From TrEMBL:
The keyword Glycoprotein does not apply. Keywords: Biotin. The keyword tRNA processing does not apply. It comes from the Bacteria. InterPro entries: Biotin_Carboxyl_Carrier/Decarb, Biotin_lipoyl, Single_hybrid_motif. It holds the Pfam family Biotin_lipoyl. The lineage of its organism: Bacteria, Pseudomonadati, Pseudomonadota, Alphaproteobacteria, Rhodobacterales. PROSITE patterns: BIOTINYL_LIPOYL (PS50968). Residues 89-160 form the Lipoyl-binding domain. This is Acetyl-CoA carboxylase biotin carboxyl carrier protein subunit.
Length: 164
């Protein structure tokens, strides 16, 4: 992200879908959860806790420009390998296998996990299904909470490489 003064900061953004919540993680590890809804073409309602903002956003040539009360922000996508820490992003993403409800999130952001560890349990068609880590590493960008409804294929977490 680059602001009008030219200051730049890398942000990692979890799954984004109109009307959904998503996590934004800054370089310093600060994490916020945002709820986003498009209220008219180019106009978005963004809520964080009790704060609500209406922002104008435009997308062109792979860049998102957003007018905020503090000024204009420009978002440019990171290269996939940079974001994934050198591994293919798809290999480290954990997605919901079915549409259903998350009944229990079993890990926290920053927790070390082994390949196959249960990250969350979901209920779908009266069955409980364990959602497991696709690789060993550090659970990150967990975008679901107990009681959340998720669609099949929605990325619910990422597994970052361990520093070891």
């Amino acid at each position: 992200m680059t602001d009008t003064t030219g200051a730049s900061e890398e942000l990692r953004v979890g799954p984004v879908k109109s009307g959904d919540r998503y996590a934004v993680i800054a370089e310093d590890g600060t994490r916020i959860i945002l709820a986003v809804r498009e209220i008219s073409p180019g106009s978005w309602r963004v809520a964080e806790g009790e704060s609500i903002f209406v922002l104008a956003a435009r997308r062109h040539a792979g860049v998102i420009e957003m007018d905020t009360p503090e000024g204009r922000l420009v978002f440019r996508p990171a290269a996939p390998l940079d974001f994934a820490g050198g591994d293919a992003a798809a290999d480290r993403s954990v997605a919901s296998p079915l549409t259903g409800m998350i009944v229990e999130v079993k890990v926290a952001d920053g927790q070390t996990v082994a390949e196959g560890d249960v990250l969350a349990v979901m209920e779908s068609m009266k069955l409980e299904i364990s959602i497991r880590a696709t690789a060993a590493g550090i659970a990150s960008n967990i975008s679901v909470s107990n009681g959340d409804m998720v669609d099949r294929g929605r990325v619910i977490a990422e597994i970052l490489p361990s520093e070891e």
